[in-house]
Amino acid sequence: MRSAIIVLQARTGSTRFPGKVLVPFGETTLLSHIVARLGRARHPLGIVVATSEAPGDAAIATCADVLGVRSFRGSEADVLGRFAASLASVDESPELVVRICADRPLICPSLIDGLLEAYDDCGAPDYLSNSLRKSWPEGLDVEIVRADALREAAAAATDPYDREHVTPFLYRNPDRFSLVGLDCPFGNFSSIRATIDTPEDHAALVRVHEALVAVDPEYEVEAVLNLATCSPELFPATT
């Protein structure tokens, strides 16, 4: 098994929902909830919360400290540079980086473990994800990037879009990087949203979370997909 670290991308700034990563969720905050779920993944070396140097994001670093996970603060505008620099802040030298965004409360540790276990069988690509081709619900996205490829992208990307969104430079350059996408084996759930962009999304996913924990406090991907099949109306509206 290749060494891997999870980098959780988190910001308080949002025009549609300011401070969203620190809003209540379940019995804690959204950020704390996601960190706890990620902590159940078996294979990664640990978690780094990557946030910006903007004054409002100091609270995110403080929350990470309270949770006992590492944090890194970097450029507010250059998200790709911040993401790559977060690797230099850890003692480990992981081969792989797992990218997760902190607005996806249903993220499932089994998905992370599954992609890491499949990495070598997929040819050890520069970029492996379950979102390259849309079939999973938006919000169950997992991206695995070879650390050296991430550093290469950070050194080479010049388009502002690539700097702002971390991974597009890789998957927009298939001649330069090897890419593999894994489809959902349970069907096409691409019409389901499980991300928080607005207060309405937050309210909907709190209800979804409550329905899932009522059956299993440590629910996994099968339970999320079953609920999406039986009660898709519970999930946030598509945009």
Structure description:
A 7-stranded mixed β-sheet has the order 5-4-1-6-8-7-9, sandwiched between helices. A two-stranded antiparallel sheet has the order 2-3. The model has no long low-confidence stretch (mean pLDDT 95). The longest helix is centred in the C-terminal third of the chain and has 15 residues. It starts with a strand and ends in a 9-residue tail after the last helix. The protein contains 9 helices and 9 strands. It is globular and about 45 Å long. The protein has a single domain, classed as Alpha-Beta Complex (Spore Coat Polysaccharide Biosynthesis Protein SpsA, Chain A). It is α/β, with parallel strands linked by helices.
The gist of it:
This protein has 239 residues and is an alpha/beta fold. It has helices at residues 30-38, 58-67, 79-88, 109-118, 147-156, 160-165, 168-171, 199-213, 221-230; strands at 4-9, 24-25, 28-29, 47-52, 70-74, 96-101, 127-129, 143-146, 179-181. It starts with a strand and ends in a 9-residue tail after the last helix.
